[in-house]
Design goal:
Helix content is 3%, strand content 48%. By secondary structure, it is mainly β. β16 and β17 form a beta hairpin. The chain is globular.
Length: 475
C-alpha cells in the first residue's frame, strides 16, 4: 500500500471521529461517482516518527525564466536524518530525480527549476521515514509567497479566492503523482454566476505529469473567483498561483487547495492595520445554502461574532477591515463554523497599505482541525526574519504549549517559550519580532490539547501578508 493510500485511510478514521463533512457535489454539476476513499481532512500532515515512508507533492512554480520559480523547503522535526529522492517534473514532460538527505532537526532546500526546464515545474518528494514536512516558496520580481506541499493526492480540490481581474493572472496547477491517468473537470464560481468552460472539462493529467491552466483564458476579468476541481477518475494535487502585473501591489498569492469543504476553519492571527485591507473568502461548493458564523477572539477577552449567508455554489467575502466590533490595529483569532452542516472553504487575503514595504499582497489558507504537535519551518530567503508566531487554542480549555528549537541535530527547549499558557479561543502571540532562535532555525511546537499555529514573516507590508505554513504532525 502506497503512502498516499495509507494517508487517505488515516484521514477516513480522523473524519469519522471528528464528524467531518464531505461536500455533496461540485457546483453546477451532477454528482460524479464517489472515489473509493473520501478526501483527507488536511492536505498537509507530517507523517509520524514510526512511519516507514512519506510522500509529498509540490505543484510548484514557474521555470527559471518565469516570474515565480519555486523553492522546495524540507524541514526535519525528528532527531534522526531522513533520506529519499526529489523528482522535478516540467510542464513539457521533462523529469529528473536526485537523491536527498534531510539532517536530523534541520532544514534543506532545493530548486526544481535548476533540475529541468519548462514554463512550469513541479516536484515530488519521496522520503524513507516520517518526521519531515515539505513546503514551497515562489519568489520573483512581483514578490513572494509560500504554501505547504500536499502529503496526499485527492479526487477533489477547492479554492475559496482568486482573481482574473484587470492586471492579475491566475494559474491552476494540476500535478498527478500517481501511476494512473486522472481525468479532471473544473468549475468556477464568480459574482456573475457559475462557469464550466468546455476547455476545462475532461482535462487529462497523465501519471507523473504537470498541467497548468491560465484561468484568465477562459474566465475573463473576474475580480472574485472560487474554483472547484473534481477528478472523475484518478487523483491529483492542485494549487493556484496569482501574479500581478508590474505596477500593481506586489506579492504572489500561492495557495494549496483544500481537498474537502469543512464545517469549521481557524486562523490563529489576523491584524487589521491602518490602511490595510483584510478579507476572508468563503466558498460554498455544495447544493445547499450555508450559514457561517465568524467568531473573533481578541487578546484581553473581547469577543465578536458575525453571521454570513452563503448561497449554494457561490462565494461571499467578509471584510474585517473597518468592522466596528474589531478595534483597529488589534490582533485576533478567527473561527468560522458552518452551522447547518454544509461544508465551506475559506482563505484570507491581506493587502498592506500603500507605501508599505513589499510584498504587499498575500493569501493564507485556514486550518480544518487542531493538532497537538506542529512543525514550523525556519524563514527561507527572501524572508528576513519572523514577525509573529501565533497559537490558537481549540480545546475549549486552557492549553499549555512548549516551543523547541531544531538545531545541531537536537530538539532544544527555548527557556522563554517553555510552558506557555494559551487561553481558550484566544490567540497567544509571540512577538512582534521575537528574537533568535525563532525564525533562524525550525521549531517544534507541542501542546497538551489541540491548537492551530501560524507564523508571519518579514519583509512584508502588514502582518499576515506572508505566513509560513506551520504543518501538523500526525500523533
Amino acid at each position: 500500500m502506497s503512502m498516499l493510500t495509507r494517508l487517505r485511510v488515516v484521514a477516513l478514521v480522523v473524519m469519522i471521529l471528528a464528524g467531518g463533512a464531505i461536500v455533496d457535489r461540485v457546483v453546477g454539476r451532477a454528482p460524479a461517482p464517489s472515489p473509493a476513499l473520501p478526501p483527507p481532512a488536511e492536505a498537509a500532515v507530517v507523517a509520524g516518527r514510526g512511519s516507514q515512508s512519506a510522500e509529498w507533492a509540490c505543484p510548484g512554480g514557474t521555470g527559471r525564466t518565469g516570474l515565480a520559480p519555486a523553492l522546495i523547503v524540507m524541514t526535519n522535526g525528528s532527531t534522526r536524518p531522513v533520506g529519499g529522492t526529489l523528482t522535478a517534473v516540467s510542464s513539457t514532460g521533462a523529469r529528473r530525480t536526485e537523491t536527498i538527505s534531510v539532517p536530523a532537526a534541520s532544514q534543506v532546500t532545493a530548486i526544481p527549476a535548476d533540475m529541468v526546464t519548462g514554463a512550469w515545474v513541479a516536484a515530488s518528494v519521496l522520503l524513507d521515514g516520517g518526521g519531515v514536512g515539505v513546503s514551497e516558496e515562489v519568489s520573483g520580481s512581483p514578490g513572494w509567497g509560500v504554501a505547504a506541499c500536499a502529503s496526499t493526492a485527492a479526487a477533489s480540490w477547492y479554492f475559496a479566492g482568486g482573481s482574473t481581474g484587470s492586471g492579475r493572472s491566475l494559474y491552476l496547477a494540476l500535478f498527478n503523482p500517481g501511476v494512473t491517468d486522472a481525468v479532471v473537470d473544473i468549475s468556477f464560481a464568480a459574482p456573475t454566476g457559475v462557469s464550466e468552460p468546455p476547455a476545462d472539462q475532461g482535462v487529462i493529467v497523465n501519471p507523473g505529469a504537470l498541467t497548468v491552466l491560465n484561468v484568465g483564458n477562459h474566465v475573463l476579468n473576474e475580480p472574485r473567483l472560487a474554483t472547484s476541481v473534481r477528478a472523475l477518475s484518478g487523483s491529483v494535487v492542485a494549487s493556484e498561483t496569482e501574479i500581478p502585473r508590474p505596477g500593481l501591489p506586489n506579492g504572489i498569492g500561492l495557495t494549496l487547495g483544500s481537498p474537502l469543504a469543512a464545517t469549521a476553519w481557524s486562523f490563529p492571527q489576523t491584524t487589521d492595520q491602518a490602511g490595510s485591507y483584510v478579507a476572508f473568502n468563503i466558498f460554498n461548493p455544495s447544493s445547499r445554502p450555508a450559514r457561517v458564523k465568524a467568531r473573533f477572539a481578541i487578546a484581553g477577552g473581547l469577543r465578536s461574532t458575525l453571521t454570513v449567508e452563503v448561497a449554494s455554489g457561490s462565494q461571499k467575502v467578509l471584510y474585517t477591515t473597518g468592522q466596528a466590533r474589531i478595534p483597529p490595529g488589534t490582533s485576533f483569532a478567527s473561527t468560522f463554523v458552518s452551522t447547518r452542516g454544509v461544508g465551506v472553504v475559506i482563505d484570507r487575503n491581506v493587502l498592506a497599505p500603500p507605501g508599505a514595504p513589499p510584498p504587499r499582497f498575500g493569501v493564507t489558507g485556514g486550518a480544518v482541525a487542531g493538532a497537538r504537535t506542529w512543525l514550523v519551518p525556519a524563514v527561507p530567503a527572501p524572508g528576513a526574519g519572523p514577525w509573529t508566531l501565533a497559537v490558537q487554542d481549540l480545546a475549549g480549555r486552557p492549553v499549555q504549549v512548549t516551543v523547541l528549537a531544531l538545531e545541531d541535530g537536537q530538539q532544544v527547549p527555548i527557556g522563554s517559550l517553555d510552558g506557555l499558557r494559551v487561553r481558550a479561543a484566544e490567540p497567544l502571540i509571540i512577538g512582534p519580532k521575537p528574537g533568535p532562535p525563532v525564525g533562524r532555525v525550525p521549531l517544534l511546537l507541542r501542546a497538551d490539547g489541540p491548537v492551530v499555529v501560524s507564523f508571519d514573516v518579514l519583509p512584508s507590508g502588514s502582518p499576515g501578508v506572508v505566513s509560513l505554513p506551520a504543518i501538523p504532525i500526525a500523533d
